[in-house]
Each structure stands twice: as C-alpha cells, then as structure tokens.
Design goal:
homotetramer; 314 residues; 6 helices; 18 strands; 23% helix
C-alpha cells in the first residue's frame, strides 16, 4: 500500500491538490479518547501559509469534515475518516503547464510511472497531500501527550537571505521528550529506521540524521559512547549521542533528529526543460509560490513523528 | 514483522551471534534464475574481517548451507532458505558481561524491551546478523545486474588516525548506475524513504542523505534545480541534485547517497556503566574488536540497496 | 489493518451505519482505466432493498461522491476515495436499544472489544458498511471484465416459506468464468484461502465451500480426480471437482463456490437478552428489517470476489 | 508474502518435500516462555504416518533442529527458527513423473505459475510442508494453554470403507474451549475469516463452516438466535449457533468449526492425463500413499488454529 503509513496505527491518505478534496483514514486509533478539535485547527493553521511574502498566495480555509470513527467527540475504535475540501482552485492556471515537465518536480516521473498525471498543481505529488497527515498527526500528538506525557518540539532553520524570485534550502530540528524506554524493535523495524522512513516520505526531504548524526564521522568511540550511572537510584546517561535510541529501541532519553529540505523547485527564473511531446522549452513559472519549505513543513515533521511514535507504542 | 524486510521480495533473518546459526528466508525471488554461488562467497568475504589490526579477531568460515528454493542451481520461485553456522564461539568470553550493560550497545534496551537477552556477544543485536543480509543481497544484486544491468558501487570513508584502543566514526558512499526510470512510488513508499529505512536498519547508522543531501540547506532553488533537455532524441538532465529520484520515483539518473556510521562502541578504555542489578561499575572491555565500521559495513550497504531496489522493481 | 482488504489492490472502508457517511479508499487500482459510473449505480441498486415485503424499509439514495484518483472519468493510479452519505437516519429509533444487547448481533462483542459502541443501528457492524465494498467491487469487476474477459455470476438460494415476523437462512452460489490460469499462489496465500477470507468478511456468512466442497467427504479419489487430456491441441479437464483451483493456483476452469448466510437476527418475536448494566430483559424489536440476507448480499459476494481476484492478478 | 502466515505472530515456512530440509521462522513469539520440547515431538508424531495400511510408507524421523530464538529452553523474543531434515528421499521414484501432470495435484499449476517445478514428490506443494506448521503450532498451543487455559480439540471423521487402491474424502471437527471474550476484530479481520483463511491454507481443504454452518440455510432466525441471560451473575448463552463468534469477535463460548478434505489424489487406478510436452498418457501411480487425509491433517488443523488464535490475542 503506497498511500498508507504505519503498522498498527495506519494512516491512508488520498486526494489531488486541485481535486474535490484531500483526506485520510486513520485506522487503529484506540477507542474512548476525547479529541480536542481546536488543536487540530491549530495544527492546520501552523501548516497553512502565514501571509508572509515568502509563501504561496493560495489560501485554503482547511476546514475538516469528520466522517466516521467519532461519536460525541470520543473515538469509537473504528476508522477515523476525514476530508478537507480544496476550494481555492484555479486549474486554468495550470493549463500552460499541462504538457511541460517542471524541473525538479515530479511531473516527469509521474508520467513515467503511471502514463498519466493530474496536471493541476502537481496532483497527488503536491504538498497539499500533507494536510491529511497534519490532521491525523494532531490526533496522535494529543494521544501521546495526554496518555504518556510525550512532548514533540520543532525548530525551523532558514538561511537569512533569499534572493528575489528564487528559493532556498531549509531544515527542521525535532526533539521528543518523555518517550518511554523500551519502545521500538531491533533489526528491520528499528525506531530510527521508522523515523527516517517517515521523514523521507515528506516531499523535498534530503537528509535525516539523529543523535550525533553525520558528526559521528569525525568522532572517537571513547568520546561518542554514552556512559551510564545510577544517581539516587535513577539511571542517568552522561551524554546522549545515541539520540535516545540504542539497538533500535528507545532509551527514555530525548530523541533528537534533523531533517534538511531542498529549495522549493518553483522559481520564477527561466529554466530549460522539456515537454511530454519531447520538445525543449524555456519555462518561466508565474504565480506566488512558497520560497522555503521548513516553516510550513515543521507541522508535517511533528505530525509524522507523532504517528511514528504512537505506532510503535500501541 | 520486525525481522523481515521488503514488500514483494521479503527477507526474514534469524539467529543470535553465538547461537547455532544465523540465516534467512528470501521469499518472492523470481523463478528460473541461475545463481552464481561464487559471488555469494565473494560478498561474504568482503564483509568478513580482513585480518587488519583494526578488525575483530573472530574468524568465521561463513559457509552457506542452502536449504530450499533452489534446484540444480536454479531458483524455483519458492522461498530460498539458508543458514550460516556460528563456529567460532567463545561464550565464556561473555560471562563477565552477563550482567553489565555495555555503553552505547543494545544490552540495556534489549532487557527493557524483552525482559531477557542473550548475553553472548550481543545476541541478535550483533552485526553478525548482517551475514544473512549479505547472502540475500548478493542474490538480489546478481538479479539486478543480469536482468537490468544495474550496478551498485560503494566507497568507504575512514578518518586517517584511529587512536590505539579507541574506535572512530566512518561513512559509506553508494552509487547506483542503470536504475530504470519510473520505479518506486510516491507518497509513503517513496524510493528514498525505502532506502533510508534500509540504511537505518543497519546497526550503527546515524545519517542518511541522498542527492544534494544536507548541502541543500545552503542552496538556492535556481542552483539546485536539475534542468532538462533533449539531445539527439535522448532526455538529458543538466545536473543531478535529485540523486536520481523525483517525487519518490527514479529518473533513470545515477542514484547517490551517503551513510554515516558511529564509532564502534567496544573500546578498551575504562568506561562508567551499570549492571542489571543497578550497580555502578567501571568497565574495561577486553578482546580484539572492530575499530571502524564502514569497511565491513559496505557489503551490507550494497546488499540492503540491492534488496530495496529489487523489491521496488519486481 | 482491520478495515483494509487486499495486498496489491487494497480497499479500506470506513463509516458507521448512522454516522455522516460510509466510504472507502481503493489503493493500487491501475491508471488509465475509464470507469463506467452507470455500472456502479447499478451495482448499488442490486444491493439496495427492492421494496419487497421481506426487506428493510430504510431507503437510501446511495449517491456516490468521488473524491480522488479519477480525472475526467479516467483513473490516475492514485487512491480512489469515495463517500456515500447516510441520509435516512432515525437514530431515535435506536434509543430504546442503547443499553440492550440484541441476540446474535455484535452489540455485546463490540462493547467487550472496544468498551464503547455506536448504538445507532449497529454502527460499524451494520451491513451498511458493505456499500463501500460494492462501489469498489464494481470497479474491480469492470476491470476484470474489460481487461481479461472475466465474468462473475451469482445465484441466490432462499427457502420458500418465511414465517411472518421471522427470518431465514439463505445462500449464494458464485461462478467465475474466464479466470486466467496460473494466478494465485500456493501455501498461505492460496486462491481459495483468499476467497474464503473474503466471504467470511461478509456479515452473517457461516459456510464456504468450493469445487466439490463438503460433498468431497463421501467421495472416492478415483471419482473425485479431474482427469485431463489434450483435444485438438487444447488442454481439457474431464471434470471440475477442483472448482478451478489446484494447489492454490487457478487452472483456467470455472471457479465455483457456495456461501451460506445465517438468518437475519432482527426478528420481531420476543427474545431473552441482557443489558449493559447486567439486567435480564425480554426484547421485542420493532421496525421493518430484512428477513433474508442472500438477495442483497449477492452484490457483496460478487464485489468481494472481484476485489479478491483482481488483487491476485495485478 | 506468500509463505508467511499471521500479522503479529508470523510463521514463515520453507522447504521442498525432497529438498535438504523443511523448516520455519516464527517471529513475534513472546519472550521468557519455557518450551516443552516433548510436546513438539508428540505433535509431530500425531502428524506422522502411524504405520496403518491406509498411510504412506515414507517414514521420516522428523527431528527438529532449533536454530535461534531460544536460550536454555526459554524464548528470547527474537525469531525462532528451526529445520527438520528430509532424510527419506527417493527422488528416483519421481523420475517417471518428471514430465507428467498428476490429476488433481498441483503439478500443472506450479508449471503455469512459475515455469518450473520441483518434480520430487510435489516439491513445495507436498503436505510435507506442514511439518513446519506443526512445530510452530505446538509452541502456540502451549502458550495458549499455559497462559490463558485455552484448549483445542479435534475429532476425525473418516468414511468406513475405502476401496482397495482408492482413497476417500474425510473431515476434521475442531473445538476451542476457553477462548477469552472480546478477541478478534470486525470487518475484514473477522475471527472467522482468519480461521477460514488458515484452514483453506491446508492442502486439500474444500469446506469450512463454523457454528451452525451450512445448516443455517434451513433455519429460522428465532430458532437460530442465541438468547442470553444472567444467571447467578454470569452471562449465559442459551445456545451457541454463533460458534463462539459474533461480529468477528469472540463471545467467550466454545468456538466450533468443521473442515472437509478431498480424497488423496494419488490413487493406483489408471488415469487419463497429460505431459508437459502436451502428450496424452494413461498414468498409473505406484508406491504406497496416504488414502485419507484427516487422521494426519488433524495435527495441522490444531496447529493452524493455535497460530490463528494466538495471533489475535498477542
């Protein structure tokens, strides 16, 4: 299943960027959990464009319609389905792009893979799909927080100067405090492998590192090892280069990882590219697009983290 | 299934480091493929310690016993099961470690997770488990090469100086040439997500980046975008910051990624740690251990890459 | 995933009987297939109550709202999501049943399993859920027919006399003509095991037999064996006690199986039962309910057969 | 995965009938469970030919070699791998059958599916594969019994007269007492669907019915419904036509089902059949084969039941 994520808590998403709606089905969520719908609204707002000049001018109300799995605000244990309508549709904007493969977009590869693609705003490849992840992720985050006290925090890293009409690469740092020890499994379902899988499922992700990360390349074992001791009866780690995970299983320490996103590929400078009838063209993309990914992607990082961790715990 | 990898081509591994054997079952491998057993032997040799002073003194013959799925050297389409006996067993070496949690090893977390662990050399958490991956990976690599002409190459990066008795972090670069375009799927089964999942399933992996990788953080979109044009009827990419993958689907260009491994945690310097009855102790690990991971892990990177790509193709 | 069916073509259903909607997500459906929406309407009509005195008086328009995966009537290869609104809701009818466990319904076991249940018409346990299967099944049936010429036929078996106010057990015979040979797999994914799994996922199914079925108990091997011969260059089976399947793989002959459904448990006669606060009560269920399952279930049998077979073929 | 069974407790089997070994990997078995190896031996003995004139003369010692997952008789929580060598091999007996498709065997369909088959005794299609199920099933049965007091019983039904040189259909009735209430899930993973899937994965199974089964066809709802009442504070069902399952979830009552097996297809009477080079031949199968399946299959029914139920519980 290519549009599903998780083993025990399974999110299936659907919807094209300029189709009638995007949405999801969340299966495996425990029964009898009271949902805070305001937090879902807030999570969607943190993913939505803020109005900044560096962001897309597409403004969607992102109202969630809950279809199943919830009665009087409480989960039933049955699949939670929801949709968010796509209202701000200007498919005519995309007529000019119907036969052009935008550089560093998925236009070409979708055609290679499916022999057909929805040309309206990238269709299913659009980051609009992540709306469904944020809705479901908000439920998972609420459950982690209320049931176990797990807290997920993100920090956005954006270079200072973005040249006019261009875009720039960015990053998100994520920290999880309160993860219970002993969760996750070794070998092929290592907790870090699940997190990496989750992060690389976010569009534009290019790098994932956890704990000491890529810096481990220059370190000695004696400096890198996390020594332990009991202090007043509690187990203490003297450092946390492990990033809270050993052998694929959580240690109970803070889980830390970094995710790097490529620059937004929609830039207004002219670019050499090709069409689906094999012509070379010079493409100028108009319209106002996001110029940096991390600020809006942070909500997605947080959501995918919550879904991944809850999946390992239930 | 925590000990299985893949969706269509599924490898299940089993075995403790100092138990009777390690092995695997490879399900989904196509029928009527003639296996080159010499290549399997060579792959295992590239994973085995070379005799260098920086490597473990454990020397296993690593002879593969094929149990099923192959008749007269040709695959039947049924599960291919194999075992490799553990002959070089000195479990008494581990008696002293039976109750001690070695820093930055999985001893502690296995006990937290299972309430029991095999103290003999890390049991299932040992890198010995990767023998099974290399056997299966060699079959996948042969299939990719002979059927599609796909070539996987690795480069090992090891810092120059390793202090005596200490260990050091290292890295492996991997390049795949000849990957057919249009393979992989978007959204949650993105090709890069599968590769990341595969790499983080290798013990000690701390960082995975592909294409432009973490360097994308400082790049502008106009510099990062991979422009395209037709030359003499062939589609050409003018750069490959995408690392051969767009929207989770292969472009046909070279797939490139880097993996960083932490330093080997078994160092001979004294370390503060704890026991399973909550005592603080100063631990000195004796014996000769690997001091750097990449040289032997390269065979595992290659194998996991082959298994991942073949899984996406068949 | 408890609400998903299939391995390659995966249907996930959601929705409570008297919630806002029932619906589904069909993932894995091939791209570039033109859908005949009239056939979907016809399939739903064959599942809907006909107005006969033996059927429920609930009348839903069952209009399908397509949310994703289709552009201009043609599939995109992305998930096909759809909903059918529940309009004919009289939840107050169920107030009297809020605390009563109806005999031979799932009221009791839902409470045991989830600690909560939707009391409105059985919630998720209602046969209303099968609406989603019929929508998805119709697409699968269209694909099988147009791509491979596979034809699925069902025959309904209903006892002659149904006592007034009571219900009766019934059966559906299913025949598949044109199934390509060599489909399915042996051991745990036998074609017959998949079909049985599909049929027992339909509410009220009590028995599944294929080919010679339960009658095989009294047969000798020499009578039961299906001899073969070539006639005019074509392979012919002299009988088909195998029901079109040998060793879990299709032979190309007609696939035949029978499914028996229990009587509808909602009868108007007084019944001894209990409440969720452990009281004994005498229950009389009012309202007009279906009195026999097979006539409406035939569309579900057909749909689940189509989904199962297409899943084995793609 | 076509050679794996289960979602949480996953058995993967491998091995051809006359290859080096058959075996399995059982993943997900809880840690710290002490195994009674004598019970495994007894389970295998109940599956082995008894020496009766109605059974095959192949006599295998069926000694289990345990490869992993167990230390000092106690499970580690890691995969339990085991093999059973095939010692009684007379592949030359099968030379005559190398190019002949035996009627009602899987010879033809394996060739259609894989383009190759192991002609030695049916290869992977042989019931010899079930040895691995009985080993794993015995562990599951021990766990169910010791942890929850669940008891599985089988009764074999064999017609009185089997004509000399012919075979006959047979049946197994299975009863499970002590199944906890509230286990299983509704919709597509109904407990009865899992049991049906398990039973139809056993070679030669033609019919599965549970509770009232096929007899429900002639019953009225008022006769079929299982009324309930509290007696001395305990919930009592006044009948059990549900066979211990409502809405896919266990009620706590006895789970009952029947499985019918076709006659053994290897009969010594001459049969019309074809070869893989499209010749018509008259085949006489020599050697001593089982003439009835149920007596030996009962151990497999019991094992698959145990694996299925434990999978739903853990």
């Amino acid at each position: 299943m290519n549009n599903s994520f998780g083993e025990h808590l399974v999110l299936t998403t659907f919807g094209e960027s300029h189709g009638p709606a995007v949405g999801g089905v969340l299966d495996g969520f425990p029964s009898r959990f009271r949902i805070d719908f305001d937090r879902v609204v807030a999570a969607l707002a943190s993913r939505a464009p803020s109005g900044a000049a560096t962001e897309t001018s597409r403004r969607e109300p992102d109202e969630v319609e809950w279809l199943s799995g919830i009665l009087d605000g409480v989960t039933l244990g049955t699949p939670i389905a929801f949709i968010v309508r796509n209202l701000c549709q200007y498919p005519e904007d995309y007529d000019a792009l119907r036969h052009v493969y935008r550089p560093s977009h998925a236009d070409l590869t979708y055609d290679l893979r499916y022999g057909i693609r929805d040309p309206r705003g990238g269709g299913r490849a659009s980051a609009r799909e992540t709306v469904a992840r944020v809705v479901a992720g908000s439920l998972a985050e609420q459950w982690l927080e209320q049931t176990l006290g797990v807290k997920i925090e993100t920090t956005v890293i954006v270079p200072d100067n973005i040249p006019d009409g261009d875009s720039v690469g960015s990053a998100v740092r994520c920290s999880v405090v309160g993860m219970p020890a002993g969760k996750g499994t070794p070998v092929f379902s290592k907790l870090q492998a699940r997190l990496a899988d989750a992060m690389f499922s976010i569009p534009a992700c290019r790098s994932f590192e956890y704990g000491s990360g890529a810096a481990a390349l220059g370190m000695s074992g004696s400096a890198h090892n996390d020594e332990m001791e009991y202090r007043d009866g509690s187990l203490c780690f003297l450092s946390n280069h492990a990033g809270g995970i050993l052998g694929g299983i959580s240690t109970g320490e803070e889980i830390m990882f970094n995710v790097v996103f490529k620059p937004v590929p929609s830039v207004s400078l002219p670019q050499h590219t090709v069409t689906d009838d094999r012509q070379n063209v010079l493409l100028v993309i108009s319209g106002r697009h996001d110029r940096v990914i991390a600020p809006r992607a942070a909500a997605v990082v947080r959501s995918m983290t919550a879904l991944t961790l809850m999946d390992q715990i239930i």
